[in-house]
């Protein structure tokens, strides 16, 4: 903590009235931080909004910004293209669930659809139709779980394109 003598307080008041910033006062007086100067100004009840000194540099004149005129662009003629949409989930028949409870289900080594159909916790029942590949679901529920993706995923994903005309 620094000692604020009467001389230093008078110097602080003089520098502050001259329009110096708290950082400038701290560096001029030495041994003080900007926050120490701000705190002392506040405790003394001095005007914290001392008038800033006039800058020796001339200010830049702001010029109005003009917008460029829009340029008409002719679209290139192209052949119409029709994107082939992936088949909807409704194109696969919804399976009739076998309904096996979770307590009855022995998933070890058996490849059955694990899509929950009904119930809660230990009373949950599953579809139990055969699955293909490494999926945990039958074809219908695999498509239901995956869906068609978000709009951005559909934009990026390669889609087969069929030319018309």
Radius of gyration: 38 Å
Mean pLDDT: 76
**Distance between the terminal alpha carbons, to the nearest Å?**
86 Å
Spatial arrangement of strands, main beta sheet: 2-4-3
Helix content: 25-40%
What is the total domain count?
2
- Classify the secondary structure makeup into a structural class: alpha+beta
Main sheet attributes: strand count, strand direction, barrel closure = 3 strands, antiparallel
Tell how many strands the DSSP assignment holds: 5
Strand content: 5-15%
How does the overall form come out from the CA principal axes? elongated
In sequence order, what are the helices and strands, one letter per element? Answer: HHHEEEEHHE
Descriptive notes:
By secondary structure, the chain is an alpha+beta fold. The chain has two domains: 6-44; 81-158, no CATH class. It is 27% helix and 8% strand. The chain contains five helices and five strands, in the order αααββββααβ. The chain has helices at residues 6-17, 22-29, 34-44, 139-146, 151-156, and strands at 81-83, 100-101, 116-118, 125-126, 161-163. The protein has a three-stranded antiparallel beta sheet with strand order 2-4-3, with no helix packed on it. A hairpin with a 6-residue loop joins strand 3 (116-118) and strand 4 (125-126). Helix 2 packs across helix 3. The chain is elongated. The model has no long low-confidence stretch (mean pLDDT 76).
